[in-house]
Amino acid sequence: MSGKRPRSFYILAGFFTLFLLFLYGPTMTIGILSFQGPEGGLTFPMRGVSTYWFADLFRQQAVGDIWGSFSRSLVLGLMVMVTSVVVSIMGGLAFRKRFAGSSVIFYLVITSLVIPSILISLGVGLIFSQSGLTVHWSTSGYGSQLTWTLPFGLLIMFAVFNRFDPSYEEAARDQGANGWQTIRHVVLPIIAPSLIGVALFGFTLSYDEFARTLLTSGSYNTLPLEIYGMTTNVTTPVIFALGTLTTAFSFAIIAIFLALAWIQAKRRKKQGSDAGKGLV
User: Fold this and answer.
1) What's the pLDDT score for residue 274?
2) Nearest 5°: CA angle at 125, between 81 and 146?
3) Is there a contact between 215 and 127 (Cβ–Cβ < 8 Å)?
4) What's the pLDDT at 2?
5) How many whole angstroms from its chain centre is CA 62?
6) CATH assignment of 64-233, among 1.10.3720.10, 3.30.70.1400, 3.40.1190.20, 3.40.50.720
7) Which parts of the sequence belong to the ABC transmembrane type-1 domain (predicted)?
8) Cystine design at 221: which of 81, 118, 225, 274 (Cβ 3.0–4.6 Å)?
9) How far is the C-alpha of 30 from the C-alpha of 246, rounded, in Å?
């Protein structure tokens, strides 16, 4: 048998390489340009290499409210994350059994994914303003973003509970556990990796959401809106440095959630091993 690879392999490998360059090339370009010297501009060729523009982020900014917008995006992301996890669990548990109107509710939830995001933002903003409520990132912005994160969380939970073996719950009830104890000590530990995924979805989708926050954030920008505003009046690589830091922050968040999933998997494996030893 010949060890020579077929031509199709190299074609597919080349196509995949181009895809990766298309996917990560812009981010890599921004990362490289953010390390320009004090005289650097927004395009190549680079004028020196330094961390000057990263330090400039921590100085008093003449334009924009970078750290204020970052703190708002962080708080909003945490609010959306917690709500998405709690509601997704409750929805997943509720939809394990069919009830009147369950199909209608399911399609109403999923429909928000196909409605243009800017229309969601406009609609939520109008509802708040016409109702006499303050349009603010922590209220209308929060509600608008939940229309984006909750459907993803619910879809994940539906898939998880469709594969969930009810015999675990039956065994817990046979041992005298009530409903809450069964959920706390049996159901939640089993679905914990999926909950971590829902939390990651909720936070990251909220943290970088632009369209659904555009008309619902009120007078205070979140970080995506602030960066968009900076593109119209900032002419230095400081905006690239900000993009590099926010990208690094996003990867750090992903790494933290993956570490939590790994720790949870190790703990479950250890508990299973200890239980097996106890039966011997």
Assistant:
1) 57
2) 15
3) no
4) 54
5) 31
6) 1.10.3720.10
7) 70-257
8) 225
9) 12
Angle at 261 between CA 257 and CA 262, to 5 degrees: 115
Listed by start position, the domains of the chain span 64-233
Residues of the chain with pLDDT under 70: 1-3, 60-63, 271-280
Q: For 85-122, give one letter per residue: b (16+ CB within 10 A) or e.
A: bebbbebbeebeeeeeeeeeebeeeeebeeeebeebbb
Q: What is the DSSP code string of the chain?
A: ---PPPHHHHHHHHHHHHHHHHHHHHHHHHHHHTTB-TT--SSSSP--B-SHHHHHHTSPPSS--HHHHHHHHHHHHHHHHHHHHHHHHHHHHHTTS--TTHHHHHHHHHHTTTS-HHHHHHHHHHHHHHTT----TTTHHHHHHHHHHHHHHHHHHHHHHHS--THHHHHHHHTT--HHHHIIIIIHHHHHHHHHHHHHHHHHHHHT--HHHHTTSTTS--HHHHHHHHHHH--STHHHHHHHHHHHHHHHHHHHHHHHHHHHHHHHHHHHHHHHHHH-
